[in-house]
Give the backbone structure.
Amino acid sequence: MPSPAISFAALLRGTRVRSYANRLPLFTRLVLVAIVVFWVLGLVPVLDLRNWGALVPDLVGITTLYRLNTFPFIHLNLFHAVMNILALIPLLERFEAEYGTLTSLALFFGPFATLPAFIYLFIEKFVLRANTSVMGASIWVFLLLGIEAIRTYKMNPYLVVGTHNIPTWTTPIALLLCVAALVPSSSFLGHLSGLAVGYFCGLGYLKYLAPPEKALRFVESKLNLLGRLPHYVSLDQKTYGRFGVLPTSGSPPPRSSGVALGMVGSSQRLGPSQNDWLHSMSSSGVLRIRRDPRLLKLPPYLSLLCIVVGVVWLFLLPLDDYSRRTYISENALLPGQVHTYFGGSDQNVFRAYKHETGGLVGKSNIEINDGLETIVKSIGLKTSRQNFTYQSAGRVYSGENLYAILQAPRGDATEAIVLVAAWENVKGEHNRNGIPLILTLARYFKRWSLWSKDIIFLVTPDSIAGPQAWVDAYHDAHDSSRVDSLPLKSGALQGAIALDYAQEGRFESVHIVYDGVNGQLPNLDLINSVNSIAGGQMGMGVSIQEMWHHNDQYPDRLRTMLRGMLKQGLGLASGPHSSFIPYHVDAVTLQPFGIGWQDEMAMGRVVEGTFRSLNNLLEHLHQSFFFYLLMQRERFVSIGTYLPSAMLVAANFTIMAIALWVKSGQPVQNAKKEPEQDGSDGNPSTPAVERDLFLPLGVVTLCQFLAVVPLYLFNHATESMLTPTFTIFAVLNTLLPFALSQYLTQYHAPTTQQYQLIKSFSLLLLGMFLSSLATLNFSLALIIGLLAAPLTFMRPFPTSPAARFLCASLLNAVSPTAALLIATAVWRGLDVSTILRGAAFAWDVCGMYTPVVVWCVWWPAWMAGSLVVLGRPEERKVKTL
Amino acid sequence: MDGAKVTVGRTAGLYAGAAVLRLALFTLFPGLPDLLTGRVEISTPVTSFKRLQEGLFLYNHNVSPYDGGVYHQAPLLLPLFSLLPSFSTLPILTYLLYIAVDLLSAGALLKIADSGEAGSSALFTSPRREKRWSGFIVAAVFLFNPFTIATCIGRSTSVFTTCAILHAIAKAVAGAPFSAMVALSFATYLSLYPLLLLPPLLLLCYDRRPPSSQKQPLLNFALSHIAVVLAVLSALLQMSYLMTGCSWEFLPSTYGVQLTLSDLTPNIGLWWYFFIEMFDSFRSFFLAVFWLHLSSYVGGLTLRIRRQPLVVLTLLLGIFAIFKPYPSISDASLFLAMVPLYRHLFPLMRYTFVIAAVIMYTTFLGPAFYHLWIYAGSGNANFFYAITLVWGLGLSLLVCDLTFAVLRDEWEVERPEMVGKEIRQI
């Protein structure tokens, strides 16, 4: 249907819209104003305009016949009004231009409104016996389309598609069906009545409906309407006529070419705008859009939009509309359904064990293990020990793990669940209640015969290196030179719970720590089960992410989520459970905190309940989510909801990279050759320049290879050397871009195109790495993406040294080294050497890859960006292809 | 870079650099070869080094290597590898063997590039042929392509097939059709699919035949050289027969596995996912369809681009890299090795950036999604398969774009007024 397309194509060029709007005749303007006025009035709820004016079959009576005229002006909402205006105006304008303002007025207030309304009312009330109300100008749209269709049919009977001839008068019917299918609240019957009247009129019976011309001419001349009213279209068009004298039904030779566009090549009455649209929709037109220089101004705004939307998306997540309540997906778990019997005399056993283990405090690891081993052996479990020695940043982390296996009396030893307690927790405090509790639980569990999986009790000297060594050795993935193999093993691990109970006295709530190495999280069902058991069955509080108080409002939710994201992004091990998660063993650490009335037996019951739930599993937890963000113990978002945020931030780099690639292939403006526009056979040529790829590729590859240097340095420097190394590196980092840029400008004299290509390749790599990383560690990808976001907007400033240095200092403020320094400033307890030592330890022991991402993904992109900002391109002759 | 004079010293330096890089990677990162050998993108059931070691062990202990159902590679590889000392005691010699094979392939590629066949074949001369890269650059691109290096470090046995195919083409270009046929027979013996390269290779040999056989008509030429291929193949098969204890049982385990896809280990191809979820009654039908699809490109391309058989070989290698039963990145690296021969057509290609970006993205996303599927347990096979489909899409884009550039180049010779103009495709 060409008519709306005219206005759309005209919209593409602003000046044409304005000139088109200026040339609208009077009646069209009046209708437009009426629709707008009625819409504004409809905003006032008191007036209840829609009930007043719509065509409601039951309400139409003698006194309410005005509805037959008012219903086309009233619309349901703004969207309805705008769409109808856009559809109606071109058609109405053409109708009026042909028939004159007065005729149109008479017709539209007369037969064109009432006839379709009558038909609709008749069918609706008497045939369908329904009461659907209609309103809106689309009935006129279809009416005018009907008239147009018949006229087009007379001129160009068939639309040739392939070998089929489709009569052109059926086009409005196709549109009718489309609208009925696609627009939800449209009235098929109403449109059909309008169309029927339109066909009727188009077939020539309009003259029976139209008021007599002589009368109208008399009125017109008597009132001198033509002279008084602006944009008035006279009946004989001799004094108006945008197109001069129009043939009303003449048919110039149709310019159809047998392709699908044949229908539209009908007559001059369509006007220049129609031909332009035709021309623009041919292949050269699409090319014209492609070559439009304004198109390349768009990507930086698009990138900015992506970044902004990505960040705003994140802040929308804690709202109720976007987050969900947690639920247990694995029905086998049945958390909180069992009665837990831990307590009673086990309290005495606990106190005895606490006294004994209290006596071991301060002794060496071997002595502690000897003492614990006697206790465990007295329970009757098989025990074993494992030595490990890790070296990182000049320090040695060595120790001995002790573990015991409770074989399920009626199980087949193919699966196992683990209960871990570290002698010292992550903060270095002694796990004074956790160790006796694990021993008491071992004694308690041994008495039950309902275990289907083996239970392994593990006591490690520290919270990170010990469990990591044990889990690695259990799965035979350990480095034999550093970690001993396990002499005793059981089946595949299905789950693990770690106890961190350093607090003395009764507690109030349980803190669940669930972050794993490299941001991997356990299955959400495990956290939900613990939450259900501790919070539901046992009546304790449950908290996450060190939010000791959480009031379930937006700020607390946001803070929880951001803390979780930070922990996930850093990817450090946050407890004994972290080492289990990379092996697809779901694990959490439970830390009682607060002052309340729950005692150690309550904690034991929580563990018992969780183990009873884990006992029911037939396979690994797989039903619930592995990728989620928890904002409160019972609210989460899953990956489908939060991933677009990081993907958008990564996509912004790709968009800029593609835009820069395209820009680099275009000729420089001041050295433009004459592009051959629209050659004689209608084929425009696209002048492109050759791209000199060698230097940009070399620079980007060099930056990537240089990244190995800081990675190696910070992972292998000894502890005392860390701060001086870092300081020297930070200083070099600031100076290196200057030096490299100077070298480039002096010896290679890169052009603007080469700087564009450097930026394009480095952003392409950055976007690629970050999108891949977002699937593995969403938070790290998002954090790095946001910190690297200024790189999208960097460009050389050849003429302005001030801008250059300003941008360079801005980039230095968001460099990796600066980020580290800012982190030390924000978290007062940390200093650079602690951070770097922790990173080196996590790299050596846990296999954390955050340093790789920072130094091998972010830093090379930063370096390339700095080089681009400091560049001083000069123009050289570029060769065209 | 346009055919600049390259001295022997420079080439030797290139080879030395590539060898040093590979040796450095082998020795400085002791865990790297095993890590790469374990990756499905590099090792397939018919090219895996681990399976070769298994077969070697059985062979050395006088058990048929095909009894275990693990080893699916050609029998004659076993005596070759058993000549080397045991891998666990002295791995360096195996590494040196693979490095040598890589360098030989690079040498063959150098000869192909330097002959100028890509720019001007016997029946067609491209107007753009001045802008080509010398053999030095083409060999450098091949040797330093990360895919080639990863294949070498992962010790996939497809390097032998690559070497044989490249030698076949080099000999054909040099005017030694007999040697070309012998090399192709070796390639076919090692992996089944190079047999499909016979028609274009025959045409290439015929176009570049030595003066002594100038007057021979095409049909006689073709028949005699097909006979050569058959003879060499039967000789090799006979040797294998004798070697595996006088039995033909190696045939189902080697070529049968390729034809019937009995091993469904995931790889970067399209076949495994289809056949994992297929009902048995449809299996043979779909196997026939897939093989027919793979072979259908040979006839069409050979006839259409008769005048440039080297182009046909390049395009077919690209198509095989996507559609063969057990592809790996080594097939992609072979295809990407032949593409720089057509540097003069790069300006005619329309999607170079998209192709480069897609291939790079999938190279990084593929292992990430495989990790999510197998290790983290939070993805499933669809993630990995989707990324391999995108990888196939990128390679298909490259094949199609190269075809477009070749055809456009040929067409511009007939219609010189259309140079530089945008064409409208129907």
Remarks:
- The interface with chain A takes residues 347, 353, 357, 360-361, 364-365, 368-369, 371-372, 375-378, 418, 420-424 of chain B (CB under 8 Å).
- Chain B is about 65% helix and 0% strand.
- Residues 411 and 417 of chain B are 11 Å apart (CA to CA).
